[in-house]
TrEMBL record:
This is ABC transporter ATP-binding protein. Pfam families: ABC_tran (PF00005). It comes from Alterirhizorhabdus solaris. Residues 5-234 form the ABC transporter domain. Keywords: ATP-binding, Nucleotide-binding, Transport. The keyword Transport applies. It comes from the Bacteria. One of its GO terms (molecular function) is ATP hydrolysis activity.
């Protein structure tokens, strides 16, 4: 199936001369959750703004299901829902009304059944007559999502959906986004929480200084770039690595008291931790504790952005 969204050479230089997007090429697959990761100022909100017609690109093209978004902004906008980064909504409005109104903004005819379905799916039905200002922070966020879904878009952008949200609420939000994907909506979210991408995304793109530096399946990314790290606390400190261990990815730390092992996922077949443990036993190297961990997406991301800098 052709991608649902294609960005080609997309560029944005703001009036002051700042290059926020530098020839971005990106394809979004139908039905996926794509997480766009990047530090603050990387260009995430600008990218979303360009697709949603809020930021005028200075170069490149945006195509939604074959339709040119720069030439046909209204047609494309009707297919897209946006949950903005800033919580901005009229606090005095009533929930159901504001959601129904959002639908109308896209020229869709009034349909109370759709509004009800959206509100129910977000557990907001009981609050349909409440004023937005009366709701908790988590519910206010859900109202923003309801507004973005009111016109039944098939692409949903969520710009930092859980920024400043507590851990429990963040987990609720992840569940909700998963359920939306299961209902067939293509989801593009931006985040600077790596954990969020690790938890939810099918694919991950990393943007830094307006450039896409990587796009990959999450699983592939973890498998390819993931590392295992282990630390052996030695029973007797070493002054130098024994020659018998020269072939292993090892280093001494803490004045020879700790043996550190670092290996990439690709190397583990021949130089795996289990094999190392057997080797140490055979050489009579005694240790008190062994801590091992696999690197997370967080480690990988920090590596990437630091290298790119
Ligand atoms: N309206 C604007 N005018 C000038 N510069 C802007 C404007 N909006 C954003 N920028 C700059 O563009 C860069 C990218 O911003 P943004 O897309 O908001 O990044 P992110 O969402 O990844 O944090 C930043 O350096 C930001 O200061
Ligand atoms: Mg942003």
């Amino acid at each position: 199936m052709p991608p649902i969204l294609v960005l080609s050479g997309l560029s944005k230089t703001y009036a002051g001369g700042h290059v926020a997007l530098d020839s971005v090429d990106l394809e979004i697959r139908r039905g996926e959750i794509f997480a766009l990761l990047g530090p603050n100022g990387a260009g995430k909100t600008t990218l979303i703004g360009a697709v949603c017609g809020l930021v005028r690109p200075t170069g490149g093209t945006i195509t939604v299901d074959g339709v040119d978004a720069i030439r046909e902004p209204r047609q494309v906008r009707a297919r897209i829902g946006l949950v903005p980064q800033e919580l901005s909504t009229d606090m005095f409005e009533h929930v159901a009304h504001t959601v129904g109104f959002s639908r109308g903004l896209f020229g869709k005819r009034r349909d109370d059944a759709v509004v009800e379905r959206v509100l129910r799916s977000l557990s907001l039905w009981d609050k349909r007559d409440a004023k937005i200002m009366e709701l908790s922070g988590g519910m206010k966020r859900r109202v923003l999502i309801a507004k973005a879904l009111a016109h039944e878009p098939d692409i949903l952008f969520l710009d930092e959906p859980t920024a400043g949200v507590d851990v429990e609420l963040r987990r609720d939000m992840w569940k909700l986004i998963g359920a939306l994907r299961d209902s067939g909506v293509t989801i593009i979210l931006t985040t600077h929480y790596i954990e969020e991408a690790e938890e939810m995304a099918d694919r991950i793109g990393v943007i830094d200084k307006g450039r896409i530096i990587l796009v990959e399946e999450k699983q592939t990314l973890l498998a390819k770039l993931g590392r295992t790290e282990a630390r052996f606390t030695l029973a007797a400190p070493m002054t130098a690595l024994p020659a018998d261990l020269a072939d292993w990815p090892l280093a001494l730390e803490d004045d020879g008291g700790t043996l550190r092992y670092t290996i990439t996922a690709a190397e583990t077949e021949t130089r795996g931790l289990a094999a190392l443990v057997r080797r140490l036993d055979a050489l009579g190297v005694d240790y008190r504790t062994l801590d091992a961990r696999r690197s997370s997406l967080e480690d990988i991301f920090v590596d990437l952005v630091e290298k790119g800098a």
